[in-house]
């Protein structure tokens, strides 16, 4: 038996139940791993709340790192004792788990366990946003909402390394300072300023080439006013609630804009694309161009507390659970 955090019905953080579960032996194509660190992400809260539908009951979480303890039939390329990480496979909030070998990513030397748990889902999100959804080029201007969050801190540093002009938003002086120290050229307190007006002022009326928005409902429509004509609005999260666009004509009126709602499942549907992204994340971290900020760690049993902090916008950087 192993400790895990189970969701039996949708609701708030109180639905994260500490239970002892049986993991069992790995089946064909699977690995059994003993986890050493687990990443906490907004998608975990969406699945728990019911915004994203998932079959009940389930072990929460989508990202972790651990050591292989057992290998199932028809698995090659891995050995017992290897350290692996993963993202996008539900069941992470557990001291031990079974993992599809196809989704296991070898952790290179020099990457610590908590760092690996903090960067896979968030770092690979930053990768597809800036290299696939909108291949960011030197000299382009971007607006990144929640710039002091887990994805934001990674993405803003990475965008700066590419040579982009990075404008970030956050909701407190502390978060603004953190964003400024992690790649943002300019920062805007969205609680105190009209961020659309400020973006237009900073860009001499032109607007930015692309907006990356993981906040959702509260920032979506005003973000359209931040874009240059034919710019791209990338809505990749729902921290404040889901987005609704009832009138597509608004895109024409605001400059023949483009809008996309990407997810990692479609960018990393095969192992080759997944490993390409993971290796890019490892490389940029190893180079020092992206410094990983772990804002808080919680014991696995305190996962509900971690969710409360994340949803309450009380966190900065990545949040990690330790079994």
TrEMBL record:
Keyword check for Nucleotide-binding: no
Highest taxon of source: Bacteria
Chain segments annotated as coiled-coil in the UniProt record: none
Keywords: NADP, Oxidoreductase
Pfam families named among the record's database cross-references: ADH_N, ADH_zinc_N
Occurrences of domain Enoyl reductase (ER) (ranges): 11-321
InterPro entries listed in its UniProt record: ADH-like_C, ADH-like_N, ER, GroES-like_sf, NAD(P)-bd_dom_sf, QOR-like, Quin_OxRdtase/zeta-crystal_CS
UniProt name for this protein: Quinone oxidoreductase
Species of origin: Devosia rhodophyticola
């Amino acid at each position: 038996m192993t400790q895990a955090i189970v969701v039996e019905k949708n609701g708030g953080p109180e639905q994260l139940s500490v239970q002892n579960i049986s993991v069992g032996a790995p089946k064909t194509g699977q690995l059994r791993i003993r986890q050493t660190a687990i990443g906490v992400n907004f998608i975990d809260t969406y699945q728990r709340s019911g915004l994203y539908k998932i079959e009940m009951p389930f072990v929460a979480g989508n990202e972790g790192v651990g050591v292989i303890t057992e290998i199932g039939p028809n698995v090659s390329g891995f050995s017992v004792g290897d350290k692996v990480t993963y993202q996008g496979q539900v069941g992470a909030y557990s001291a031990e788990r079974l993992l599809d070998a196809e989704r296991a990513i070898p952790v290179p030397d020099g990457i610590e366990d908590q760092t690996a748990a903090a960067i896979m889902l968030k770092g690979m999100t930053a990768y597809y946003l800036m290299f696939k959804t909108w291949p960011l080029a030197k000299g382009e201007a971007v607006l990144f909402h929640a710039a002091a969050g887990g994805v934001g801190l990674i993405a803003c540093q990475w965008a700066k390394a590419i040579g982009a002009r990075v404008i970030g938003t956050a909701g407190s002086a502390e978060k603004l300072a953190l964003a400024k120290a992690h790649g943002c050229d300019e920062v805007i307190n969205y609680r105190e300023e009209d961020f659309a007006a400020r973006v237009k002022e900073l860009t001499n009326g032109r607007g930015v080439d692309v907006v990356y928005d993981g906040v959702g409902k509260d920032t979506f429509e005003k973000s359209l006013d931040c874009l240059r004509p034919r710019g791209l609005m990338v809505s990749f999260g729902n921290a404040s609630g889901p987005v609704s666009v009832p009138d597509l004509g608004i895109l024409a009126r605001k400059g023949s804009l483009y809008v996309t709602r990407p997810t990692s499942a479609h960018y990393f549907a095969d192992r080759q694309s997944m490993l390409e992204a993971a290796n890019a994340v490892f490389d940029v971290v190893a180079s020092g161009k992206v410094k990983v900020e772990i804002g808080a760690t919680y014991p696995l049993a305190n996962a509900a507390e971690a969710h409360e902090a994340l949803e309450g916008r009380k966190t900065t950087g990545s949040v990690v659970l330790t079994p």
